[in-house]
Amino acid sequence: MTAITPLVHLVDNDPHVLKALGRLLAMEGLDTVASASPAEFLSRYDPAVPGCVVLDLVMPGGGGLALQEALHRDGIPVPLVFLSGRADVPDSVRAMKGGALDFLTKPVDADTFVDAVRRALARDEEQRARRDETDADRAALETLTPREREILPYLVSGKLNKQIAADLGVVEKTVKVHRTHVMEKLGAPSRADLVRLVDRLHIAPVPCVGRTGN
User: Fold this and answer.
1) Mean pLDDT, the chain, integer
2) Confidence at residue 214, expressed as pLDDT on a 0 to 100 scale
3) 140-147: long-range contacts (C-beta < 8 A, 24 or more apart)?
């Protein structure tokens, strides 16, 4: 599959700023898309395309903070780099608490800006890789039988096979067979791998109380 080229979305109502930032990033080999307003950005943004957003703090018709909130409401975790013409501490704190990767003040140093954008692109790549991994985990989970789904929280609980068998009212050999099938279907070579997978899927293990022996 051909990799999709990441896009850096530049959102600023100042055409001179858009041109300057676009030229700077082009020199770094990065593709950009310029939008003069949050509304224009939202009308063309495709969450399936990797990238990040560089946005001005203050713009007519809704600034960067409003756009950040809109993205949160829509469940779009795209990394954001804020630019501002003033060092506004409350707004910068609000932006960072909202998950912004960086908050830079204009005129921004070229190296600092490029570094922030590259970190934002790297963050997006990491987030997408984690989502892909979770999607693959969910797909593998769907291959389990109802009984295997039932036993999965027990397998990562730390309980012994005989304890699990007693809890479920089955023989120990049945637990061993299910354990083998579950680990094969989920692609988990070890219990540690299975624990990490279950944690990614937010499946709570059965509490292990008073474990003894091996």
Assistant:
1) 90
2) 40
3) 140/185, 140/186, 140/187, 141/186, 141/201, 143/185, 144/182, 144/185, 144/186, 147/178
